[in-house]
Specification:
- The complex is a heterodimer of chains A (about 190) and B (about 250).
- With about 190 residues, chain A is mainly α.
- Chain A is built from 8 helices and no strands.
- In chain A, helix 1 crosses helix 2 and helix 7 packs across helix 8.
- Chain B is an all-alpha fold and about 250 residues long.
- Among the domains of chain B are: about 50 residues, no CATH class; about 110 residues, no CATH class.
- In chain B, helix 5 packs across helix 7.
- Classes of the chains: A mainly alpha (about 190), B mainly alpha (about 250).
- The interface between A and B is medium-sized, with 35 and 31 residues.
Chain lengths: ~190, ~250
């Protein structure tokens, strides 16, 4: 998914089917969007297990809220918003709990590995994960939406409830911070 | 200069999009023009290009293909659990359907029995009061009868005394005035002492009833009329007999 949040043509039919009491409509929505929802969350949260848990929570929320969903709206935009908000809230909670511990663990781990000249894919991934984890939740979301999903700024501002200028600034600072962190680790 | 600085700050925000190629042509030109005059912007461009290069190389670990097939059943499992935990108005309503009438019946029963018990208690007390009243009445009537019996004894005795007094009243000339008192005293002294009744008020009332308008009055008139029919000699004899009879 890149560039826009346009959903499939049969989304409205699936929603109607579910509203009429047919669970197959809901099942089809889950199957259709589970990967996209998973990756929205994964790029913000980073950890697979946490992502899995939040993905399930998102679809449970969708199940309870789908009856109130207005059919003129875009289903995937709605799903994207729910997934992003769930991921941001999760990051906020975890950050409050683990701010100190993450800091200590990462320093020790990479302090020992600095001697290693070889930078494999796994290590690069870990560095990037940590760099993203250092970002504030909204900057993470903006980075994910703009860099990976290539959403237009107005769409991002609509999802996050921020101004376009604020979103642009968030993206700029996110990229700068990631670069600074990666530079320090490599 | 401040105007140019502001412009550079704005252009800085366009740099990430410029590097990733996700920028409009107008903005792209603005950035390229700014590079010539701003070494700070060029330095930032080099840093960000390195960052994007690194990020683009990193690939996230994909979950197993099984994960995608198992996700929906796991979501349903969790949905069922949350539904079970969820507060259900339907369940509550079904409970209320039974609970409300049952409690209403119980409350009515409680109210009914408490009111009934109160009535019973009041009737019992009323009955007790009635019993006490009747027993008192019986006691009073018994006492009255006893008093009456006593009174009848006394009236019989007193009947004789007023006769004597009345006789004395009718015939004051026959006796000396000096002798009158000692005679009366004598009569009073010689009359047997009455036992004092226990209920004074009742006895007083009874006595009043007997002496004022009762049968004793009638007897007095009869005696008086009888005495009036006697001639003077007979009256004197009667007096003497009375005096000698030590009454």
């Amino acid at each position: 998914m890149k560039g826009n949040l346009a959903g499939g043509n049969n989304d409205i039919d699936l929603v109607k089917q579910f509203k009429n009491g047919d669970i197959r409509g809901y099942n089809e929505i889950v199957r259709k969007y589970q990967q996209q929802v998973y990756w929205i969350i994964r790029k913000i949260v980073q950890d697979h297990d946490e992502t899995d848990d939040i993905t399930q929570e998102v679809f449970i929320k969708v199940h309870s809220a789908l009856r109130d969903f207005r059919e003129e709206s875009n289903l995937f935009t709605w799903l994207y918003r729910i997934a992003t908000n769930f991921a941001i809230n999760h990051v906020r909670k975890v950050k409050v709990k683990n701010t100190v511990s993450i800091e200590v663990v990462s320093e020790v781990e990479y302090g020992e590995k600095k001697a290693d000249e070889l930078i494999d894919d796994e290590r690069q991934r870990k560095i990037l994960e940590e760099a993203i984890e250092k970002l504030p939740p909204k900057q993470r979301a903006v980075f994910n939406m703009r860099y990976y999903d290539e959403l237009p700024y107005d769409e991002i501002s609509n999802i996050l409830g921020k101004s376009v200028g604020g979103v642009k600034a968030n993206y700029f600072h996110a990229v700068k911070k990631i670069g600074g962190y990666v530079k320090g680790k490599l | 200069m401040p105007g140019i600085n502001k412009n550079i700050e704005e252009i800085k925000l366009l740099l990430p999009d410029y590097i990733s190629g996700n920028i409009e042509s107008g903005d792209k030109k603005l950035v390229e023009d700014a590079f010539e005059n701003s070494p700070e912007l060029q330095e930032l461009f080099n840093e960000m290009t390195g960052t994007f290069g690194f990020v683009s190389k990193v690939k996230f670990k994909e979950p197993d293909t099984l994960y995608w097939t198992n996700l929906l059943p796991r979501i349903h499992e969790r949905l069922e659990k949350t539904e079970e935990r969820k507060f259900s108005w339907e369940k509550v309503l079904s409970y209320w359907k039974v609970f409300v009438p049952v409690t209403a019946v119980i409350l009515l029963a409680v109210v009914y029995f408490t009111v009934l018990n109160k009535n019973d208690e009041s009737t019992i007390t009323e009955k007790k009061i009635e019993k006490i009243d009747t027993s008192r009445k019986i006691e009073n009537t018994e006492k009255k009868e006893i008093v009456k019996d006593n009174n009848t004894n006394t009236t019989e005795q007193e009947k004789k005394i007023p006769v004597d007094k009345k006789i004395l009243k009718h015939y004051p000339s026959k006796y000396d005035k000096t002798d009158e008192k000692p005679v009366q005293d004598k009569i009073l002294k010689e009359t047997p002492k009455q036992e004092e009744p226990e209920l004074y008020t009742e006895i007083d009332i009874e006595e009043e009833a007997v002496f004022t308008g009762g049968t004793a009055g009638m007897v007095d008139d009869e005696i008086e009329s009888g005495l009036n029919t006697l001639n003077r000699n007979e009256q004197d004899e009667l007096l003497k007999e009375l005096i000698n009879s030590n009454l």
